[in-house]
Amino acid sequence: MIIKNAEVFCEDNQFHWGDVFIQDGLFVNSVQEEDSVIDASGLYAVPGLTDIHFHGCAGYDFCDASLEAVQAMAEYQAEHGITSICPATMTLPEEELEKIMQTAEVYESISGADFCGIHMEGPFLSAKRKGAQHESYLQKPNLKVFQKLQKLSGGKIKLVSLAPELTDAMDFIEAVKEQVMVSLAHTDADYETAKEALEKGAGHVTHLYNAMPPLHHRNPGVIGAARDQENCRVEIICDGMHIHPSVIRATFELFGDNRIVMISDSMRATGMPDGVYTLGGQEVEVCGRKAVLKSDGSLAGSVTNLMDCVRYAVLQAGIPLESAIKAAAVNSAKAIGIYDKYGSITFGKAANLVLLNQKLEIQAVILRGELYKCNW
């Protein structure tokens, strides 16, 4: 396959006019035969996006612990240009987490987005900043629990979120930092505690600003500590509900586009009509772009997929398209250690690519070298 005359997002994180060559499911330098040619004149060619933090979509949730759910989610994501996925768990009873991990261990990507790992969000979180997490099942960081879940998943856990102020958190970070990325999340930690956690091996912050103390000029907290640790990446949810456009712009200036990972944090109502759904065993009321717990009105994830988050960041918040794609494709793949196979239009990598028009509407999705979706 040859994609001709596109504005191609290249490894220098800039767009350059040119052609893209695909063979045997991979990006290559050239092809022998022009058996399939797509004229992409006037279109952007960007790498398929990677969402490392979402819970569900299309009426399904990763915590349903069913192969049907994972497959349906993978297909929905691919339809929207998200070609690599790392879905997130919730704070649940251990036996339910075990079922989720067992399902993930046997799941194989057949159609839809490639399943690239698990984001274990909970149960090692703070009750004070629990957000939509179920308080009854919260616990302090437990290495034995993690190791059991990781074994059941077949080693697919790539990211573990925790509150660093909890008992045993620092020892846990040091014990697992070579196996997974540790992320600070749902935390009431002060600057010093967050700084210590990052120095001990954590390198990521889950949905920055949400479920943590705000940035204060005398108490910078987790946000300030993350800013000062140069190797720390931070997640942001650009759905128009979780972060004001002004703060999105400020965050890109504060951290730079090398360190921002755009996520959706979407729940099962994404792509579905308004109504009442569930997240982590709790009822969620969805109206328009907003999802809240029925019990207390807390934000309960989003109902916006990652490609729509990219559009919002660019068209509403004024973030350069290059920076948004970098945050949603490049940095996300790097965060969970899959950048050797995904995240850029590079020779030898999986040929996952999205063609966008000038309004950032999807014109085509190329998945594993095949035309998965075409809008013309």
From TrEMBL:
Family according to the record: Belongs to the metallo-dependent hydrolases superfamily. NagA family.
Highest taxon of source: Bacteria
Residues where Zn(2+) binds: 121, 186, 207
A molecular-function term among this protein's GO annotations: N-acetylglucosamine-6-phosphate deacetylase activity
Top-rank EC class of the record's enzyme: hydrolase
Amino acids binding substrate: 132, 210-211, 218, 242, 299-301
Cofactor binding mode and count: Binds 1 divalent metal cation per subunit.
InterPro entries the UniProt entry points to: Amidohydro-rel (IPR006680), GlcNAc_6-P_deAcase (IPR003764), Metal-dep_hydrolase_composite (IPR011059), Metal_Hydrolase (IPR032466)
Biological process terms in GO annotation: N-acetylglucosamine catabolic process
Enzymatic reactions: N-acetyl-D-glucosamine 6-phosphate + H2O = D-glucosamine 6-phosphate + acetate
EC numbers: 3.5.1.25
Keywords for the protein's UniProt record, in alphabetical order: Carbohydrate metabolism, Hydrolase, Metal-binding
Amidohydrolase-related domain: residues covered: 45-370
Organism whose genome encodes this protein: Anaeromicropila populeti
Pathway annotation: Amino-sugar metabolism; N-acetylneuraminate degradation; D-fructose 6-phosphate from N-acetylneuraminate: step 4/5
Active-site residues (renumbered): 265 (proton donor/acceptor)
Designated name of the protein: N-acetylglucosamine-6-phosphate deacetylase
Matches recorded under Pfam families: Amidohydro_1
Cofactor: a divalent metal cation
